[in-house]
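Lecture 7 notes: from sequence to structure.
We start with the chain below.
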Amino acid sequence: MTNRLNIIGLREWVALPDLGVVGLRAKIDTGASISALHATDIIEFERDGQRWVRFTAHLGTLVLRRHRCEAPLVARKAIKSSNGQTQIRYVILTRLVLGHHIWPVEFTLTCRKTMRYRMLLGSKALIDGHWLVDPSQTYLQNKPQILTPGAP
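Predicted structure tokens for the same chain:
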């Protein structure tokens, strides 16, 4: 039995419905293990005995958009960036929409203000989706529409 591959380009439009985020450009980076989201003003807090984080997600590069978000905290991880520096980052798990596919993805929260793309989609996010990345192409999947948080 052959699994059908979903072809994506080097850049794709994505949404994070649990965070209320739609219309975010992501760079597909198979050289990065974990995915990253540009976030600032990160505050850890407790809700119903569980650790959460509240943060500002920065969504645009040409038109700057900010969105205040909250998500359960999965972990804190030491991440070595491409410049060789290690930093401790908060990790959240939230649903990602790419084309017609929706699945949970771990994201580290980090300042990416000097980066062109506010989100990196790393290789771990692509493992179970039978994805094939064509780096010569961009925006091969349909742009996600507005979704209701918590909907399947």
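Points to note: The chain is about 5% helix and 55% strand. Residues 6-134 form a domain with the Cathepsin D, subunit A; domain 1 fold (CATH 2.40.70.10).
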